[in-house]
Design brief:
Strand content: 5-15%
Distance between the termini: 46 Å
Shape: elongated
Number of strands: 2
Order of helices and strands: HHHHEEHH
Radius of gyration: 18 Å
């Protein structure tokens, strides 16, 4: 019998944790009946990282998706009144995306859902373990200390 490769074991643990986190967050979102997908949620959270409404191309780059995917997400969010397309003040060929009041309200609900999901996921850890985990995750995500926008 061979000894398992420690990196393979860690990789499997990370995949299992990712699936668990996704399931729990999805359940918390569904319980709030916000009517948005996880991808739309991610786009809304990304919008607040900009000091002024971004272009769709900016969103695609930050989200690491093709521009067409952003168009589809924005279409759905615009139809539900959470974002709106606005003209660029300096270039009439450019469209920018901004949050509406309803989008800001939804963003608050999303934060609450994510917070309650995180509480459930992290419940078994002590505060010291949580702090250590946060530092390790920052390193794995960015290779350095993470910025959240």
């Amino acid at each position: 019998m061979t000894t398992p490769d420690p990196d393979s074991v860690l990789a499997e643990q990370l995949l299992r944790l990712t699936r668990r986190v996704h399931r729990i967050q999805k359940r918390h979102l569904q319980q709030r009946e916000l009517g948005i997908t996880p991808a739309q949620s991610r786009l809304l959270r990304t919008l607040v990282c900009y000091s002024s409404p971004p272009r769709m191309a900016d969103l695609a780059e930050r989200l690491e998706v093709v521009p067409r995917a952003v168009t589809t997400l924005v279409d759905g969010l615009e139809a539900s009144g959470k974002v709106r397309r606005v003209p660029d003040p300096t270039n009439r060929r450019v469209t920018r995306i901004e949050l509406t009041a309803e989008g800001r309200t939804t963003l608050g609900e999303l934060r609450d859902a994510r917070r309650s999901a995180a509480h459930e996921i992290l419940a078994p850890l002590t505060s010291d373990q949580r702090e250590a985990l946060g530092g390790l995750l920052d390193t794995l995500i960015d290779g350095t200390t993470a910025t959240h926008c």
